[in-house]
Amino acid sequence: MRDWKVFPFSAIVGQDKMKLGLALNAINPKLGGILIRGEKGTAKSTAVRALAALLPEIEVVKGCRFRCDPKLASKLCPECNARLEKDGKLETENLKMRVVDLPINATEDRVVGTLDLEHALKEGEKRFEPGVLAEAARGILYVDEVNLLDDHIVDVLLDSAAMGVNTVEREGVSYSHPAEFILVGTMNPEEGELRPQLLDRFGLCVNIQTIRDQDQRVEIIRRWSEYEDNPEQFSQKWKEEDGKLGARIEAAKKILPQVEISKEMLFRIAGISILLAVDGHRSDLVLMKAAKTRAAFMGRKEVLEEDVDACIEPAFAHRMRRRPFEEISFDSKKIGEMIARQESERAGSRY
Amino acid sequence: MDRKYRPPVFPFSALVGQDLLKIALLLNAVNPKLAGVLIRGDKGTAKSTAVRGLANLLPEIEEVSDCPFHCHPYNPSQMCERCAQRFASGEKIPTRTSRVRVVDLPLNATEDRLVGSIDFEHALKTGRKKFLPGILAEANRGIIYIDEVNLLEDHLVDILLDTAASGVNLAEREGISFCHPAEYILIATMNPEEGDIRPQFLDRFGLCVTIAGLNDPASRVEIALLREEFDRNPELFLNSWKPSEDKLRERIIRARELLGRVGISPAQLHQISKISLHHFVAGHRSDLLMEKASRTIAALEGRSQVMARDMELAAELVLAHRARNIAEPSLEKRPQEQSEGSAEKNPSEEGKNAAEETGREKSSGAGEQGESGDQSSTERSPQSYPGNAEDFSGKGQAPSQDQVFKIGHPLSVTTRDLRFARDTLKRNQSGRRTRTRTSNRTGRYVRATSQRLNNDLALDATLRASAPYQKRRPKTHLAVNIQEPDIREKIRMKKTSNLLLFVVDASGSMGTKLMSETKGAIFALLLEAYQKRDRVGLIAFRGMKAELLLPPTNSIELAKKRLEELPTGGKTPLGHGLLTAYQTLDRELRREPDLLPMLIVVTDGRANVGLDRGKYYEGPQFGEIYQEIYELCGLIKNKQKLRSLVIDAEEKRLGSFGRSKKLAQALEAKYVILEELVKDEILKTIESELG
């Protein structure tokens, strides 16, 4: 079944960094999401929806509000746990990956969940009504203009994304449930930045720009009008391409647990973090995971230098320390040179 | 409903490095009287991971098994009323052992969940009021864990302060009164970049550690490998770490048993009070804590006698956030101190100096907080402003490192505490000047009220209010019959931002030198705004019109860029500038009614373009232009909550017009002269304006 109302992923022209970043997150949800920074009208939202449409279905516990993975006994929600204890097994079903939108004006109770009004009035009992974080569990949570969201909402969001748990102690409700989702945030930097602490919580970050190449622009117009005239036909045309990518992502998911990374590569990663003087250890972990995921995406079970290098920018773009008035930017050439120099020094000192 | 989802936790013993953090946490596991830990550090430095890991290592305690407050089974002073009665009547109280609990207090918790509330299900069914215990009850004799504690709402902090001091949760709310023991310790993490916590609250934490990421590649690689292994298969990983976790747990148990027998000599006690005196620590808490901490450290190391290094470590942990010497970063004072240090060869004396240094660095920040800095206020000086503090940290580091700290954890103390000092400042700036009750329906729901304000229904509170009457009220098709008097509404709080709107004269009369000074001054203000995450807007006027060069934004980068590009020359349409400012303020306030705007006008005041006429005026016609301008000022100054500042950029010499001063009067604005300003002065002016 193919939803033809969604523009096909493979038909998106250019924006390769964003596409790679999204694909890596789809393969490995533990990467911690992606922040897409760029101007309006650069296919950000189109890409996210398109990607979700081509992803393989996920296996979930049937009827579970948090779409628990039946294979992970340690991460079942309280309700599934109770069911497992009672019945000794869990029924499963397959569901499409979903994309849940978080509107800018979302209130905190809608995000984290709240007391179920209807149930309380009808039955006179307390029940937890899940919020957006529950809806997005094991799916994609898409936050457009994340920099315009109220600070306290962003805090909650990133907290849950990082811990994989949503803890609610409010409005008479005391509850916690799994909330692992791929967080995709977009923002236009001209409207203001995110706080550094919040930036750091996004696993990857890409800066995208409007395409300046005339031929590509023409191609975008052509494809888009073709799609609008007859979405169904257009989707059919790209079905094969999208199918291939879907299969590639699925294959990558399977080999990801077997991907090995050498000590050498790990030292390279640690060296880069130290060289770029970023705060904390999250960058190391993200770069390592991203490199492994890219290797899997390339169909390899071993991380090569190129995997690490390809992931430096998305892993560090938003973590680089900057002085108050510096813009978030990433000079890949300069940093490449710095790394090469450090590596050769290290090699030199070894022999 | 009450069952909680608990994902697997990274084992404590598998944490790489961060020894100080680990010790501080373990000490609290051994001795709850140490009153918790505050962990300050960069993002991504395993703060939360360590605390969650600790939960699995905590020892078991005995408690009354059918008491929601987890009362102590034998000690009446640690019992709730009901248990105490049972105990007094000689009734046999059922007991059980359970692990010390770590209860999460999420940032978005509401008051009713923290202190407890009326049990509305019970009230519905029986018509009787019953208390439903909250987090404070759950955490009695346990630990409350708060992630990002500096972002916790003030009203929750107040409750914590209150109960932490008394050890009792006593409340009258929703027609029910209750009282139960609430003796808990606080463990919290925070990233100082995000703002700080109140000094009073700070004091509630027995110990404090500041941590940073590890910088050697080998440890970083080790961290990455362990984390990856854990993520790949948590169960397997936990199994393989079980032996070392068990060992650590045993160590804690042994230390608990040993603790009562650990001796501390009278001389050592003297030493402790001397250290406290040296730091001008308020009260005696630090003495008591240092004594306890020293003994606990010894116990954890399996010794029954306190040694000098235990006390050094204890001083470091206890005084990190308490010591406040003089809020003067005097570099001159150092050499003297160094000579003292080298004269006394006694190791613990030197340790004391190390800790004292800690205090000094810290206090340069604390002095600014006002609430705590009273004693040291005489010494408060412009040095506590950011630029200087940073400079000072940088300069101070080198000389102090080598000479003063030789024992214990010498080098790390310096850097950590220099960081501490800097961070303190940063967060002070992002401080708490901007929390207001909101009147519209945005912001965080903090509590409920029976006042009807704007139909923002607080369902939970409404249900609780109506519950006790259900037995008596007629049945409807719903389970609950809610009537008008039951209705409760939400009180919401929101952090609002300041808006700094600059109106800058870019006319020819400003001249190159003046303009560059003006830009410098604005730049300094922008830096401030950046640190405080204020929003800024920029209006410039020159020639025949004014332009909103930068619509209000919190992107300071953009503001800076616009400022750099700002061209000068032409006539001075001051009226246009003010009109644009008025319109902008109007729009912004309509969009965000809680905004706190501040208008900053930089001009030499020599307006020479009229609003509608757009003509160049000279001589007596100035009067007409100023008529317009004063009218505008009248409009602007009536804007709600607006504060204004006029920076006079006119060169003060014979024959200057002094029109900016009149402008300031018309705006009821604060008036300063650019020439007389040094950067810090401007900052201070703004600072005092913004409170």
Description:
The complex is a heterodimer of chains A (351) and B (691). With 351 residues, chain A is an alpha/beta fold. Chain A is built from 14 helices and eleven strands. Chain A has a five-stranded parallel sheet with strand order 4-7-10-1-11. In chain A, helix 1 packs across helix 10 and helix 11 packs parallel to helix 13. The radius of gyration of chain A is 22 Å and the shape is globular. With 691 residues, chain B is α/β, with parallel strands linked by helices. Chain B folds into four domains: 19-234, P-loop containing nucleotide triphosphate hydrolases (Rossmann fold, 3-Layer(aba) Sandwich); 265-429, no CATH class; 437-494, no CATH class; 498-690, Rossmann fold, CATH 3.40.50.410. Chain B contains 24 helices and 20 strands. Chain B has a six-stranded mixed sheet with strand order 17-16-15-18-19-20, with helices on both faces. A five-stranded parallel sheet of chain B has the order 4-7-10-1-11, sandwiched between helices. The radius of gyration of chain B is 30 Å and the shape is globular. Classes of the chains: A alpha/beta (351), B alpha/beta (691). Chains A and B meet through helix 3, helix 4, strand 5, helix 5 and helix 7 of A and helix 4, helix 5, helix 9, helix 18 and helix 19 of B.
Quickly describe the structure.
The complex is a heterodimer of chains A (351) and B (691). By secondary structure, chain A is an alpha/beta fold.
- pLDDT < 50 runs, ≥5 residues of chain A: none
User: How far is it from the N-terminal to the C-terminal residue of chain B, by CA?
Assistant: 45 Å
Give Rg of chain A in angstroms. Answer: 22 Å
Mean pLDDT over all positions of chain A: 84
Estimate what percentage of residues of chain A fall within beta strands: 5-15%
